[in-house]
Amino acid sequence: MTIEVHVPALPESVTDATILSWHKKPGESVKRDETILDLETDKVVLEVAATGDGVLQEAFFQEGDTVEAGQLLATIKAGSTSQSAEPSAAQKAPKPDSSSDSSKSTDVLTPAVRKLIKELKLDPAQITGTGKDGRILKSDVMAYLDSREPAEKDEKETRAISDSVSATLPSGARPEQRVPMTRLRSRIAERLIEAQSNAAILTTFNEVDLTEVNRLRAQYRDSFEKKHDVRLGFMSFFIKASIEALKRFTVVNASVDEKDIIYHGYYDIGVAVGSPRGLVVPVLRDADRMSFADIEKTIKQYGQKAQEGTLSYEDLNGGTFTISNGGVYGSMLSTPIINPPQSAILGMHNIQQRPIVVDGEIKIRPMMYLALSYDHRIIDGREAVQFLVNIKQGLEDPTRLLLDV
């Protein structure tokens, strides 16, 4: 019996996918639900698994090929066993306890984690897995890298990137390497150009004193985390403040469709998140109905999924307004680019203790620069400035967020 492996149904608006990598070669044994290959789309990586046990008989496409939904990818000869899969006498011998085996098998790793470990030349036996049955997740790899000495981390990452460039070149050469963009990176580039080409983008700035936000976080940090099992961060305050401002300035929550303005009566807030594959913007749907705890939990889940490469199309589709936090990387000031078809994006930045004048006295306060990039075709400067001032007021007096004043 022959089992056919087809390209799975792709989400709406996605017409094709690229074969990212094959994990099995013709002649190798496969098991039911075992990943055979990865398909990369504009936003996510899809794992294609075997639907039965057998031997991979034939693969009809190579890595880098573009395929469409329903196309035949490979065939599996059901019930067969490859010769390479038959254990030798040495393989049948008892194995030492896995806890002392420094060459822990990578067969149970997800494709994304396996690729990351290979690129960084890490030993999976040294990484503690927090997934089901001790499975290693991307977040575990990141935590392992962060736990090492910075110099060691930088040296290994740099070596992993540069080895393939300079390995065959003579001493003193000036190496270059041409690498095709991933589909995600290409899509990001297209959307950025689209935003700058089709919108009249202007940016207005302000600064916010986060003294009161810091006070509330310090006062309720422990009790909040104990009750909700999540840390009380800054993003929930910024999302709440943004929603209140969006309610007052509805055009900032709108989008342009040719010559029409579409006003959205709901608040789906996108939060820009960095991932190993590039910038992604998962969406908090109906964020106005979410509590501080709900927001923090959802953001935490999205961050983990972004690192593990498991964000779905449903997580990324839509959004009426976006918040980007460049401050986590140390940015002091930037002009964020609108995420089409949205009409505005809020940029958060690094918090620094700075001297400011308060009631005629110079005081040191935790200050952050805010940036609002907006589409000047439908949002006037007055509205943009007042919108940003409204966010500033909500953050400098957080009780306004609770009392709706």
Task: Describe this structure as you would to a colleague.
It is a single chain. The chain is α+β, with helices and mostly antiparallel strands. The protein folds into three domains: 1-93, OB fold (Dihydrolipoamide Acetyltransferase, E2P) (Beta Barrel); 96-165, E3-binding domain (Dihydrolipoamide Transferase, Irregular), CATH 4.10.320; 185-403, Chloramphenicol acetyltransferase-like domain (Chloramphenicol Acetyltransferase, 2-Layer Sandwich). It is built from eleven helices and 19 strands. Helix 7 (235-248) crosses helix 8. The longest helix is centred in the middle third of the chain and has 18 residues, at 211-228. The protein is globular, with a radius of gyration of 25 Å. The chain starts with a strand and ends with a helix.
Short description:
By secondary structure, the protein is α+β, with helices and mostly antiparallel strands. The chain is 32% helix and 24% strand.
